[in-house]
């Protein structure tokens, strides 16, 4: 497990700790008048309450099949931000994330930044900041993010880069697709909609994205629009199932994780996502991109060979298929 040298949690009061049981009744039930009780009203309430209870139990049974909380209790949504030298964009990203009522908490994991990323994070509302004692890489950072999110009781976890390259505005849509029980993983695709180049994606990066995605779709037999987005949402079940510690601590972690999601047969959805490419947005240089590309192809081939039974892989174990 990655070393953690500092941990700061900003807690907020939970209004749910003080419950007025009369007020918690469904709206259609007439609340009792302490001065005057009507037997007619009481009988009507009992009939309505019986129907309401049956409906709640039916909803609970249906929702429990998805591994998510029943409809009477919203899923706990935690946003994780793997951060490195993000002092210029962290506050803006966080503000837009927290503008959505569906978000319960944010976890920022600072991978030994040389700027004020952690200091800024400590002052953000409903935010836990974890600082690594040493830089462990982008993949290693995500491993800490997901462990911390699960430990915090998250039902749905959304990874948002704190460099504001991906807009947090579509976050509620991604959450709802998982909360509905229809999907286990949602990807924010830069390719769907055809605006990637118009949004500023460099042509060499676009060509590489299309080539790698086509190659991986052919090898794995899938039909994703892209495998390389860094904006993703997962159900708790996905994160508890995947053998993430078997993956790289480098940038190829994203690709290995998504391939594991497909290996396990989880349902994946994609939504179109506009992006921005600016000087303050994180990016890897050309040589590291080449290394990443070969890593993606290697991951796809490894999964294919494991599926064919050519060799056993801890990253793609047979018992998770």
* Largest sheet strand order: 1-4-3-2-5-7-6-8
Q: How many strand elements? A: 8
CATH architecture: Alpha-Beta Complex
Rounded to an integer, what's the Rg over CA atoms? 23 Å
Number of helices: 9
- Beta fraction of the residues? 5-15%
Instruction: Report the uncertain regions.
Output: 1-64
Quaternary structure classification: single chain
CATH fold group:
Spore Coat Polysaccharide Biosynthesis Protein SpsA, Chain A
Nearest-integer average pLDDT: 83
Considering DSSP H and I runs of 4 or more, what fraction of the residues is helical?
25-40%
User: CATH homologous superfamily, by name?
Assistant: Spore Coat Polysaccharide Biosynthesis Protein SpsA, Chain A
Morphology call: globular
End-to-end Cα distance: 26 Å
Structural category is alpha/beta
| Sequence of secondary-structure elements | EHEHEHEHEHEHEHHEH
Largest β sheet strand count, sense and barrel closure: 8 strands, mixed
Q: How many structural domains in the coordinates? A: 1
CATH class: Alpha Beta
């Amino acid at each position: 497990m990655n070393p953690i040298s500092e941990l700061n949690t900003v807690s907020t009061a939970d209004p749910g700790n003080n419950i007025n049981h009369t007020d918690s009744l469904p709206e259609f039930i007439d609340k009792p008048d302490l001065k005057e009780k009507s037997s007619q009203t009481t009988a009507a309430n009992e009939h309505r309450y019986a129907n309401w209870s049956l409906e709640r139990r039916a909803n609970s049974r249906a929702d429990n099949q998805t591994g998510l909380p029943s409809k009477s209790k919203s899923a706990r949504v935690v946003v994780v931000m793997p951060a490195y030298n993000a002092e210029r964009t962290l506050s803006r990203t966080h503000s837009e994330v927290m503008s959505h009522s569906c978000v319960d908490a944010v976890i920022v994991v600072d991978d030994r930044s040389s700027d004020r990323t952690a200091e800024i994070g400590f002052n953000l509302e409903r935010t836990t900041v974890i600082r690594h004692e040493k830089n462990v890489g982008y993949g290693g950072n995500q491993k800490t993010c997901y462990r911390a999110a699960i430990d915090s009781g998250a039902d749905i976890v959304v990874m948002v880069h704190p460099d504001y390259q991906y807009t947090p505005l579509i976050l509620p849509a991604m959450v709802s697709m998982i909360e509905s029980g229809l999907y286990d993983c949602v990807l924010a695709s830069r390719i769907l909609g055809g605006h990637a180049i118009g949004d500023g994606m460099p042509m060499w990066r676009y060509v590489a994205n299309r080539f790698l995605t086509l190659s991986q779709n052919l090898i794995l037999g899938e039909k994703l629009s892209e495998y390389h987005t860094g904006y993703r949402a997962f159900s708790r079940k996905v994160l508890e199932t995947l053998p993430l510690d078997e993956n790289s601590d480098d940038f190829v972690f994203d690709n290995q994780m998504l391939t594991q999601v497909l290996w396990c047969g989880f349902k994946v959805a994609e939504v179109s996502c506009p992006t921005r490419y600016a000087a303050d947005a994180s990016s890897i240089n050309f040589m590291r991109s080449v290394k990443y590309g070969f890593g993606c192809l290697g991951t796809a081939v490894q999964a294919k060979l494991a599926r064919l039974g050519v060799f056993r892989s801890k990253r793609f174990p047979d018992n998770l298929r």
